[in-house]
Here is the input.
Amino acid sequence: MTAISFEDLQRRIAGILRRAGMNDTQSEALSGIIAAGERDGCKSHGIYRIEGVLRTLKAGKVNGRAEPVLAEDDGRGVIRVNAGHGFSTPAFELGLPLLVARTRELGLAAMVVNDCTHFSALWPEVEAVAEHGLAALVMCPSYASVAPAGGTAALLGTNPLAFGWPRSGQPPYAFDFATSVAARGELELKRRAGEPLPQGWAIDVNGQPTTDPDAGLAGAMLPFGGHKGSAIGTMIELLAGIMIGDLTSPEVLEQLGTTALAPHHGELIIALSPEAFVKGRPGDPFARAERLFDAIIGQGARLPSARRRAARELAERDGISLTAAELAELERMQRHGLDAVN
Here is the structure.
């Protein structure tokens, strides 16, 4: 293992993306979020994702030189950013300042990102909103890869949902999870490692349970919690697909024709001001939240962001640990650019 700094890793990733033809707007935003995945111990959203970015670029399914555009501000609670068929991260960063300002003004505001390609985790986005003292909900569809509860074929996306709550003097409380039993990247990592899937993760093309990663990737993943996860996944199709005038997961798969590329759809970010909602009622919402968190920890439980926070603290102190194979793969992609992928 070799330890490198966050800044060094981000620089290397940005160099790979620029070598592949991406502009500074896209490469800087993406390299930051990929490096953050490695820093926070989320291997399925770290440098593993670079290959998918390159494949999507090479296939011409994303504009690596896009400049997102913020729609004319009408003073209302819905802010709209068009990603220009580029990646979602630069569009989010462009619209965030106006979202924060509008939420402080109105108490509640939403940002719609249209025509974007999404490949990354959502927790950096809810954390970015929460660092401004606001609560946040973020969601997006994906491509059809999850069977609805009781179904036999892929229809819903992995459809991640993330939430963030601001905390004073420490990172926000945040969770980010797919509404499938596991993120698709987890199945890919199992396949690469030659490991079986846990029972209940996937079905094959015939709708039968399987522990074979290849069969699961060819068939469909399953929603977490049975009908509950299926219902939440459907809600995300409605809110972050149909309601914002963008693609649903089946439409994304029809457009792409493959699950090997990053999906193209929209994203919904909702920000809320705790002070505005509690106005006129007794108590400080942030102090009350801390008492709740303390009670959870006091029972021996952990907060959902605790493991990621511990990994971040370790990486900030000792650097981000990468294997020789991972470093060699970064060097290979830097040398070959788009030719590094099929």
